[in-house]
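Comment thread on ticket #2218

A.B. wrote:
> Attaching the input chain for the structure job we discussed in standup.
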Amino acid sequence: MAATTLNPPLGWHLVSEGNGTYSRETVTIASGEGVLKAGTVLGKLAGGKYAAYDNAAADGSQTAVGILYDGVDATSADADGVLIARHAEVVEAALTGLDAAGKTDLAALQIIFR
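C.D. wrote:
> Ran it. Output below, let me know if you need it in another format.
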């Protein structure tokens, strides 16, 4: 029997957020980032687009600036996405790409880990 890989459902990593759209921003994920799952930690590139957080990078993505709310396919073109950018509680174990430095970056944005 073939194995099936399921993507996490929309916002499943989110415990709570600010009223309305206070916690969210609409962002552009840079082409070439591939398929990013909900819960991927993101960094902001120098040009203003977003990419998967990478603490070892030197292009802006080395600073965590939020968490992707829903999956995005930016394999061959820029893609719109929703970023949890501030004032939220998230399930730490459900996040992709989070390390200690990224956790510190996000904590400064009032993102709390549960």
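A.B. wrote:
> Thanks. Noting for the ticket: The two ends are 36 Å apart (CA to CA).
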